[in-house]
Sequence to fold (184 residues):
Amino acid sequence: MQRCKSECLYGTGTLPFGTLGAMSTQSFTIHTHSPEDTQALGVILAQHMPDQAVVALYGDLAAGKTCLTHGFGEAYAVDEPISSPTFTLVNEYHGSKLIYHLDLYRLTSMEELVDLGYEDLLDTPNGIVLIEWAERADTMLPEEHITIKLSHEGEDLRCIEINDAGLMIEGWQETVTAKFPQDV
Ligand SMILES: Nc1ncnc2c1ncn2[C@@H]1O[C@H](COP(=O)(O)OP(=O)(O)OP(=O)(O)O)[C@@H](O)[C@H]1O
Ligand SMILES: [Mg+2]
Fold:
């Protein structure tokens, strides 16, 4: 069992109460020691996303949310650099999947979210929606979404907690564990 300094805790393994449909909720905590590690984690997670996944990203400034998103860009062969959409709220990237990358740090109202076509983004076939500062739109998140919480643990160490809500393609934990054996 991994515990983050912030006391935000997920167990490693299947939550006994987390059954959604045929699949059960998988929660996992991993520590990364560099931006490259966090991006590599993002690649693995991206490879296990269902279609039309919504990924709610939580964490302070510089926690690594955008860095993790870079891994999605790499996994889906996006051929332009993914940058934080701080001033536009949403950026769109075309690769093997369509990435909508939202940063809601400066969101001032739910209307603003509606105006940018948020509902359509969620309904886009082959689309993956990643939302930084997802807490700013808590009431607008679809019921089914994946949650990733990132926190600083000093210098380059980040604690990353993933809860897949039973939505991700099975096997992602094993792949993460194989990549980051030191954290098991
Ligand atoms: N283990 C790590 N994982 C991710 N980033 C790391 C790590 N160690 C150091 N860093 C650094 O932390 C910063 C993370 O920046 P990033 O833009 O991904 O954060 P963010 O959570 O998106 O912040 P913001 O809320 O400002 O958008 C980068 O400068 C990166 O180099
Ligand atoms: Mg960011």
In short: The pocket of adenosine-5'-triphosphate (ligand 1) is lined by residues 32-35, 37-38, 59, 61-67, 84, 103, 105, 132, 156, 158 (CB under 6 Å).
